[in-house]
Amino acid sequence: MRVRYSAVMRGWVVWCGGLLLASQVLAFQRNNANWSYMSNPMGENWVICPDRMPGEAVQRTKDGATAWDYARFQFTFDNEACLSNGVFGTLNGVNQIDFGFLPPGVLANTVSFFFTDTPSQTVECDMRFNSVVNWYTGTGTPPADQFDWWSVATHEMGHCLGLAHEDSVTPPPVMRTALPIGTVQRQLTADDVAGRNTIYDSPQAASGSSPTPASPTSASDDGGGGGCSLMVGNLTDASSLLATLGNILLPLVVLVGVRVWCRRRRR
């Protein structure tokens, strides 16, 4: 009987471990609107306004978009141009990426638009990088006093795709809320990939015509007005630390519980 119960408990522990890993992969958060209704998502006129952008910021922005490319879509950029007259977050048929003022503590901000009669269909996405931030636009490791443009671009492109912030899993995904200075987050994690694939592997049925521009609305994380911002973070970010501790402690608690149960069964 001891052998039988031991085998059952070991199987149970393995099952719990697998369930824990699976839950991490599926922890991503979605916005209410995305481009999956289109036959060629992200194949639109993404336009970078290079005015005052530092160093290699234009190329790093494209690199951030490329991180999300896969079989269902690829980001396509038109020639650089400033088509929004310096106004950020205005519905004008241009997916504009620019460089300008944002509130302190905000690295970048993304605003998506949809129409009230088709709230699940993104029709435009605008992005701004904060001009008061000390940026690193190279491909190596940023200095301790600079923020990595490439990492921020990857994050903001995830918002344009329809993903929201996620801080409950380890390793921290690209879509985490904050980026510590002097660090990089350029590669998608399993959580980021799962979020993208969930949205775009099963595209929505496209409508026969373009949405009627009756009441444009900007979409944020919670579907209300405004946009999604990547914030300045600390190397010891609390949410990531708590997620790590939780992932470590849960298996330990399970194992201790199994050990105590087995000892009681033997008595």
Cα shape: globular
Q: Structural class from helices and strands?
A: alpha/beta
- Which regions contain 5 or more consecutive residues with pLDDT less than 50? 21-25, 206-216, 218-226, 238-249
CATH superfamily: Collagenase (Catalytic Domain)
Number of strands: 9
Rg from C-alpha positions?
A: 22 Å
The count of helical stretches stands at 5
Average pLDDT rating: 80
Distance between the termini: 13 Å
By CATH, the topology is Collagenase (Catalytic Domain)
Q: In percent terms, what proportion of residues is strand? A: 15-25%
**CATH architecture label:** 3-Layer(aba) Sandwich
Provide a descriptive summary of the structure in words:
The chain is an alpha/beta fold. It has one domain: 3-Layer(aba) Sandwich (Collagenase (Catalytic Domain)), CATH 3.40.390.10. Helix content is 33%, strand content 16%. It is globular, with a radius of gyration of 22 Å. The two termini are 13 Å apart.
Please outline what is shown here.
The chain is α/β, with parallel strands linked by helices and 267 residues long.
Keywords, please?
267 residues, alpha/beta, Collagenase (Catalytic Domain), seven-stranded mixed sheet, 9 strands, 16% strand
